[in-house]
Amino acid sequence: MRTLSLSLAILLTNASALLAQEAAAEPKSGLMDIRLNLMFWTLIIFGILYWGLRSWAFPAILGEVDKREKALQDAIDAAKRDRDEAQRLLEDHQRQIEAARGEAQKLIADGRAVAEKMRTDLLEQTHHEQQTMLERARREIEAEKDRAVAQLRREAVNLAIAGASKVIEQNLDNTKNRQLVEGFLASLPAIQTSGR
Predict the structure, then answer these.
(1) 161 vs 174: CA distance, rounded Å
(2) Is 39 exposed, middle or buried (0-12, 13-18, 19+ CB in 10 A)?
């Protein structure tokens, strides 16, 4: 390979020297004149240059172009994969957001249901306590009424005994008289009140 390069360099040097001598020996001619000698050496130099480029430069250049093309294709493929992955992640996040939104709606609905149940329970409890208080108040009123009636009866018995004592002017036995009057009052029908 070295000898080929060396011989190519010598050939090019000799060819350029010969061309320079030929140009100096010939009289000036027009631009469009055909010179076989110049054409021959131009074709030889072009062939050698083409062969050198094809042997060393083109494979290296084409190899780099292929590497660059492969790198670009890999970058495009990676971008497509990344885009697909991003799309998948976006869809996954949207599903998660929808699931969280649904869960939040469910929690809100559950909270409302629990609040409504607590409200209903509290209303029932309050109503029950109100009914209990009313019943207790009625019982207490009834007990007070019974105590008042009993007190009135005792007072009436005492007044009746006192009145009867005065009338007959004799002091009767208080215990016996009280039993007599209480028996009489017990045989009377109970007093009906307008509140019952």
Answers:
(1) 8
(2) exposed
Distance, CA of 46 to chain centre: 74
- Pull the structure tokens for residue 18: 């010969």
CA dist 10 → 19, 21, 39, 57, 80 (Å): 14, 17, 19, 20, 54
Token reading at 50? 């083409």
49 in Cβ contact with 19 (< 8 Å): no
Tokens at residue 93, please?
Answer: 């996040």
* pLDDT, tens digit, 9 for 90 and up, residues 32-87: 667 778 788 889 999 999 998 889 888 988 899 999 999 999 999 999 999 999 99
Helix/strand/coil for 32: coil
Question: For the chain, which residues make up each domain, given as ranges?
Answer: 144-187
Q: What is the pTM of this model?
A: 0.37
57 in Cβ contact with 73 (< 8 Å): no
Closest C-alpha to 195, from 154, 138, 148? 138
Both tokens assigned to 90: 């976006």
